[in-house]
Structure prediction request, 796 residues.
Amino acid sequence: MSNTRFLTDAQLPFCKGCGHALVAQNTEKALQKLNVNPLDVVLVTDIGCHGIVDKSFLTHTVHGLHGRSSALAAGITAGLNNPGKKVIVFTGDGGATIGMQHLIGGAHLGFDMTVVVHNNMLYGMTGGQPSEFTPCGFKTPTLPEGSTKPGYDICELMVAAGASYVERVIGIGDYSDSLAKAFTAPGFSLVEVMEICPSYGVKSNPGMKLSKLVEDAGWNVKVYADGKGNSFKTPINSEPKSLISDKFEVKPKYSSSIERPFSIMLSGSAGEGVQSAAEFMAKAAIVAGLNSTKKGSYPVTVGVGFSASEVIVSPKQILYTGSPVPDVLIITSTDGLGYARAAAGRMKGGVIYIDETLDAPETGARIVKVPFRERVGAKNSAMYAVFYAVHYEKFYPIEALKDVFLSNKIAEKVNIESLLQF
Amino acid sequence: MHESKKNLAFIDGSRLITEALVRAGADTFVGYPITPANLLYLYASKRFPTMLAAPDEITTLQWMSGFAVAGHVPVTATSYPGYALMVESIGMAAMMELPMVIVLVQRLGPATGTATCGAQGDLNVVYGTMSGGYSIPTFSISNYHDCWELSAKAVHTAIELRTPVVLLTSKEMVMTLQSFDWSNLPEIQPKKVKHYKGEGTYLPYKADETLVPDFLPVSQNKHQVRITASTHDTKGILQNVLPEAIENTKRLEQKLRRNIDEYTTYELDEQQGSETLIITYDISSQASREAVVHLREKGKKVSLLVAKTLLPIPQIYVDIANRYTRVVVVEENLTGQLRHLLFGAAGRKGVSGVNGIAKMISPTEIVEEVMRYE
Prediction:
């Protein structure tokens, strides 16, 4: 055991009789037993009375928000990715209540850290309100009749979440061996230190003994998990590939005779290849020497309802990517008709290609009915409709679209001849 | 037809943003998926040296802060509902002076609104993130080149000023596919966090004339590091309202203001003789640029200011606006958030807005507003 100091000589900043001071002293003793360097320790403190102890420690100290200390510490330990460092969290029962998700998540993932819960069964800094850890019958200044619900058993919760080492101790005397075991356990460890707040707990529950209180609450003072868990390893991709490699290059091969931008709206049903078909149409425009954009519209439920896409093809640079009034509207399903009806109504010219089973919407555009679904089935109707529209509207040579189609693995499943029925 | 193209691709803005963030020096992505930021999450999982999936957005910002304490430069991407959860933690990270970038992809609100519809509704939210009126440097992407250059600028600014930075964009920029020639994108130089090199006691919040203190991660064991979100002195110790601590808190805003020229970037296309200025940002910029082309073709003289550094508001924007009798502020929200930040509730004679929600503002609407007084 070393005699390295982890605490300054200054008096600890706690009320007389508060168990928080003992947590700090037992932590120092445990770290001395482990013979670690103070600057290989990172102490992360929560909000609450215990949280002002950081100035008394000679370790690295990090002091964050109420309830979030375990998540902050998880980020630190994942960022360090070094089991030789000791990341220790001090939190109260209030902070543990607020940050329960972080405790469960930390135990679940096995972050290399130890959480020391200072459980005095109430919020001490704000006047003695009950926390979710307040046991049945325990009184506080704002709950003088006593709690009617049992408090959380954090140890059981942590075991269920997968913590490596878990122990509950009575916060009296020397429990540094328990802390030392937690500090050396691989992965996530938690020690719950039972205390009574001298300012609010003792006054509201005169004569109550801590050990009796813990026993009556049904909380066992024991080791719940013995440190055989695994440590989280931060994933490191040492050779990530650039997102803008040559394989994304599109080489113009054909030419187009259009002299102005055209906007095309494709509107169909989710699951029927609308977004892919629109993407092929826009990409083929680049192969034909044009500029293009493609933006999708769909409900958040990606597998049902309408799916629509707006494509602009242009011989000039495209700035504005919206297209409130399409020049060409392609509708392949009932869902698509429902979504596109407003756009159709805005069209004073142009053309609408619509599946022949659908009623034509009110519009100033010319209507062309085509048996898209009957000829190729629902699943390929959007792709077929795009081939059809490109063939008749002549935005660019159909060969450009064929090239894009054939270079995609969809060509292994769909016979291109089925898409060339004009 | 394309001219002098070299590397033509059909890509979305998310791809450029992600690549630029990494090249500029960001090394860790922590994310919780949310539409329409999900492509950034996807690309980050392939491109960032480290990518972690967090269980929620509060955890996201806390993990990021932890990574920054350990010496990394983390990034996340989210949308308003996620940003709202992050707000307290962003304030914490700013107070701790931790570098990080939050890509905020705007979508239609309020609340969950419509996840798959774009918007420009979050400027006021970012403006009010910090209690006390402190700023978060905020950049706004107006086109694909900005996806590249402003993403790098965001990382560099976060590192240089030791602060969280918001990179504001919207659904149509990060999810729309466009033909794009990336051959003329500038090289991005990676930047690293400047570490304290002294031998004496390290004071984590003692700054030189730049007002930015040197950093040390908790991974080293030569100097003690104290980091805190509470009001603190130069040692990083909680000090309530002692003068040294309050001076340190004021420094958080002063460092952003003193160095604002380093990260102010905007596009100004002034036409001689013009009395009308269009001011815009984000996704409305492209419609505004197109409107300017149409207006000039009609013979209407008009100038354009595309604000790329949004917060703190650079004084130069107000100075430019004051040169014009007519100012039209174009933004895809209901009430004109940038217009209010620039001109206040009282407004200014000759100032009007083109606003709208649930649709992209079109060049036609902008042309009509500019021509309204002709």
Notes: The radius of gyration of chain A is 34 Å. The longest helix of chain A spans residues 19-34.
